Amino acid sequence: MNRFFTSQTLQANRAVALEASIQKHAISVLRLREGDQIELVGPDAQPYLATILSSAPLHVQIDTPIARPTELPVQVRLICGVPKGDKADLIVQKATELGAATISFFNSQWATAKWAPNRVAKKLSRLQAIAQGAAEQSHRCVVPAVDVVTLNEMTKLQADAKLIAYEESAKAGETAGLVKAIATRPHTLIAVFGPEGGLSPAEVSTLQDAGFLPVGLGPRILRTETAPLYLLSAVSVLSELQGEKNE
Ligand code: SAM
């Protein structure tokens, strides 16, 4: 069933008019009709089943709340060195599917790609739209925020666990940091990733001084767009999957 995010406040057994953007997608693109059901998520992140009452303008009846949780138990903020080409699109789409709470980018020292300040607003608007589409597709209850940060701002961030995915740690055989961090059952986790050229020792040192822990993500060196997706998958396995309950 198709899920949409609305800015309208939702309440069971009430009728509500939806935005023109949802009408366009639901009626013109997906060809949904009166009587069809959709899923709606309002500003409080609670999803509801809803039934289409009329298509133009789009009015729906809010039915029952949907109880199935879809958010990661750990609020993960990814902070990625700006990658080349359109890899930021891929990171945002896939990281949203995998449950990221926030996806940030930073102009890192060894990146060949940099985002000029005058182009950031346009890039973020495009990436935010990609996040919304991916959140709807993956039945998230929250659309991750997409933003940019500086290294200085990163040093002031607070979280229960603060990690640097560091290729040099992986090469040195570090394998415990991520697993140990998730074992502490953090509510919030920040993970920093380098671009294609990796993180500079100066960046790693600055982040370590601010309480970030360098960790390896296994013995293979992953592409810049693969590493954040690996981390989110690992967080899901370590915090959401419980094999013995299913056996
Ligand atoms: N140029 C670097 C090198 O040759 O060693 C590789 C950089 S890698 C393509 C890009 C980023 O992904 C790294 O800076 C790091 O944040 C992350 N990364 C990739 N593989 C990793 C691993 N096995 N452990 C930790 N981080 C990794």
TrEMBL record:
Catalytic activity, as annotated: uridine(1498) in 16S rRNA + S-adenosyl-L-methionine = N(3)-methyluridine(1498) in 16S rRNA + S-adenosyl-L-homocysteine + H(+)
Query: Recorded E.C. number(s)?
Result: 2.1.1.193
Query: Per the UniProt entry, what are the Gene Ontology biological process annotations, in alphabetical order?
Result: methylation
Give the superkingdom in one word. Answer: Bacteria
Q: Which UniProt keywords apply?
A: Cytoplasm, Methyltransferase, rRNA processing, S-adenosyl-L-methionine, Transferase
Annotated Ribosomal RNA small subunit methyltransferase E PUA-like domain residues: 21-61
Q: What is its main location?
A: cytoplasm
Name the Gene3D superfamilies for this protein.
Answer: 3.40.1280.10
| One family name in Pfam for this protein | Methyltrans_RNA
Which positions fall inside the Ribosomal RNA small subunit methyltransferase E methyltransferase domain? 71-235
A Gene Ontology MF term for this entry? Answer: methyltransferase activity
Q: Which PANTHER family match?
A: 16S RRNA (URACIL(1498)-N(3))-METHYLTRANSFERASE, RIBOSOMAL RNA SMALL SUBUNIT METHYLTRANSFERASE E
**Task performed by this protein:** Specifically methylates the N3 position of the uracil ring of uridine 1498 (m3U1498) in 16S rRNA. Acts on the fully assembled 30S ribosomal subunit.
Q: Which NCBIfam families match?
A: RsmE family RNA methyltransferase (TIGR00046)
Q: Would you tell me the protein name for this molecule?
A: Ribosomal RNA small subunit methyltransferase E
